């Protein structure tokens, strides 16, 4: 029975992977830009500006799909950008999120996720192999509200803070245990050649498609 459930979950992940692979990278960037813009402009539950300013990197996973019945699975993909020494946000690197879990859970949902990385170490772990949240980097649900931290009343201690906009119903686990990895195929298609995440972040020998400017404008507050 357990093996059968695992096979079903594997089929789910493969089907979700195929769904996302069918989208162009340009569309993924535009969707990520919309997700970030929507979350930043929520009237109450917005990302605190102080966290956004302090973050080393921001990842946007547009429309993750999650299902569960005793065993659970989650899949999504999106982009991550880092902030340079001048405080400007750079080029997008495509990434994938995957999770398998065990425990009481029932339902299905789709969510748009935003992850704020506080440390370079966590991002380095992601671009060199993969990053498992809660194991390779500490993770917590992000604080919300535009006034958070304005008076110095909060100290951000975790390496990654997560935010979600959920369109369905789900009772289950958090992002702890989820794995993030670079989508090398998507990066190759978007930039027109094989290129490392480090070169993309540093804008080294890379031709950036115009659509990336849409995301950069939101990141840089324009």
Which descriptors would you attach to this protein?
seven-stranded mixed beta sheet, 222 residues, single chain, disordered N terminus, alpha+beta, 7 helices
Walk me through the topology.
Layout: H1 2-21, H2 25-40, H3 49-54, E1 57-82, E2 93-117, H4 120-128, E3 130-132, E4 139-141, E5 160-166, E6 169-171, E7 179-182, H5 184-191, H6 197-201, H7 212-219
Parallel strand pairs: 4-5
Antiparallel strand pairs: 1-2, 2-5, 2-6, 2-7, 3-7
What does this protein look like?
This protein is an alpha+beta fold. The chain has one domain. 32% of the residues lie in helices and 32% in strands. The longest helix is centred in the N-terminal third of the chain and has 20 residues. The radius of gyration is 17 Å and the shape is globular.
At a glance:
By secondary structure, the chain is of the alpha+beta class. 32% of the residues lie in helices and 32% in strands.
Give the DSSP E fraction (strand runs of 2 or more residues).
25-35%
Q: Tally the beta strands.
A: 7
Tally of individual helices: 7
Mean pLDDT reading: 75
